[in-house]
Structure formats: C-alpha cells, structure tokens
Amino acid sequence: MTDQPRLDILVLAVTPFMTEPRGIKQVQELRRHHSVTTAGIGPSPFPDLPHVEFRTLAELQGGRVWRIKNALRQLFRRHRGTLNAHPLVGEALEKLRDGEWDLIVSNDLLGVPIANRLRSRLGVIADLHEYAPRQGENRWLWRLLIAPFFDWILRTEVAGGGTVGRGGAGGRGGGADGRGVAGVTSVGQGILDEYERVYGFRGELAINATPWHELAPVPTASPIKLVHSGLPAPARKLEVMIDAVLATRSEVTLDLYLMQNNRAYLDELKARAGGDPRIVFRDPVPYAELVRTLHRYDVGLSLIAPTTFNLEWCLPNKFFDFVQARLGVIIGPSPEMARFIERYGFGETADDFTAEALARVLDELTPERVDAWKRAAHEHARELSGEVQARVWSELVERIAARG
Asked: How many CB atoms lie within 10 A of CB 296?
C-alpha cells in the first residue's frame, strides 16, 4: 500500500451482517487503512464501528397481497417498480440518505442500486459474489421472476452505472449525488469472464479464502480419514462421495459435517450409506471451530457436480478451509479449483464427477502421498489465507482513489 488519505467507506450488506463472511473480510481489511461504517440487516460483528441496522425481511415484507403484487411486477418486467417497492431498498435509503462517504462497497447485487443512490465521492465497488443472473437457475419460478430482474440491475446499475464497462462511464445507475460503479469483484475468474462476455464490464478476482490458522500437518496413518463439510444440496450430488467410499479398495473413512437445512436429502444420504461404519454423519460445528475440527482429518473432499453455472465455476469456502486445516484435497474437474490444485500441488483432480472416477483416486491413496499433499498445503497456507487474499480490497480502493 502506498501512502494515501484515510477515506470514509461504507460497507453495505443486504443480508444479516453477522452471517456475511465476505462483508466481514472486507471490513477487517479496509479498516486497517480507512474509516469504515457498516450497514446491514441486524447487528454488526464490529461493536467499535458505526453501524446502521436494517430490519429483517420478515419484519419489512407485507402480507399475501404485497407478495402477489410483487410477483406480478416481476412477471410483467416492471423492474423499476419492483426495485422501488422492495422493502429493504426503502429501509436502506431512508436510513442512509443523509450520509456522505468517499466510497461505498456493496456486498451483493441488490445493494448496488441502493449504493448508487447515496452520496459517494468516488463511487461504488460492486461485490457480485457469484454469477447473479443464474443463481437459482435450477428452479423454474426463479428463472421466470428473479433472473430477469437481476439481469436488469446488471445492465442498468452495474454495466450502465459507472466506469467499469468497456469504453468508460455509463452513468445511468448513479444517483444525483453518487458516481456510480467504479469497480467490480467476484469469487471466481470464470464468473468474471462471463460477466465481461455478457455485460461488457471487467471485474477483479476476490476469492473466498479462509482466515489464517497457525497449524501444522499431522502425519497420516491408516485408515486415511476423509472429510466433507457444507450444505446438503441435491444439486451438488453428495451421494457420489458416499458411493465412492463404498466402492474403493483403500482403507478409508468418511465423516460428513452437513448443515440441517434439508432433512429429506440428508435422510436420503444416510440411507445411501446403508449404515456402513466407515461413513459417519457428524453434527455441524460453528464456523469458528471448523478448521480446527477438520485438522483431525487427512483429506478434504470437494467434489461438487456442475449442475448449474455457478456450481460449474465454484471455488467454495470449504476448499480453502481444507488448506488452512493442512489437509490434502480431492476434487472433481471443476476448473477454478483445478487451477489451484495444479499450481500448488496439495491434492488431485478426479477425471470426472462420477463415483467411479473418485473411487479410482481413492484406490491409489497412500499415507505417503497424502503427507506430500499436506506439506504442500502447509507451504502455501499463508499465501492462500483470507488476510493475504483480502488485500485485493485495499488495492482496488487505492486505484479508485488515484483515478478520483
């Protein structure tokens, strides 16, 4: 970081701030160099910083009549009316309209039109996370109602809302006092490439890296202990990992730390395991304890079926959780994760996303091979930590300030 003035920055979340990992990382990094105010649903995890609290969507939304009207607005592509009638947008604008900042960071897409209508001397950084127009593409009602609304926000508020698009400023998205979108970030390079291909703006990579943990690799013994953590989402086809363990000739075990948000699918997975003692379903642990819990294992499995665009190009938190836990990592041929495996050498990529391909990798496992992966994870854990990777936020702010 070069010497630069201390800026007043608003980090805006349209989700509960206490459960927004990227927003928390942004604040932790930016407060090192600037004065930060937070805004989002519910309380802030930073009691020493100014915070503007929004009510929850359950508190803000109207009854059935409001929901029907909102669905009709979306169905007939009344996008500006949908935006103006969104209860969180109204709440945020009411509570933030008197503020003035040098720069606003919008956490996720819906925050961009809010940020564009506030006073910001240098404009807005739009952190778009995943590829928003296809987030719920596996649900027909989402494709019918939400996808066109998100597409409209991207075209009018991001691509047409500032200086990030090809050819310079657009300006349509900026409010009377705002400068519009000055920078865009997302979680994976493939997603950034798709934004540029479809909408014409260039963004920067900000991966979901896990905070640094002071750990060392544990020597591997037999049986080799496999682990997976995350959401039990049918689109991810977690049953492939279970089938592979049931099929492999190697001495392995598999522990699954899965959230309890989809009991039906969780019950299907347990039935699939058939009571095999090698496969154990564990209760989820708080995120603050997850990496040290994972550290007891040998290899993290991050095999996620590419059933949607965002799953095809995923680079999930769990991938970097495994690195901080100093584990080896086995993945399917997901291009974003494969790029890291190839570069840093802490795991292996299966030939495809089938149980047969994963079982072939498991058949070749030895404690010596896993120990080599663990050493590679340990060697690169600092570089791939959240603290180091979060510097992209400060570097982007510095470049925007220099332009301003």
From this structure: 12
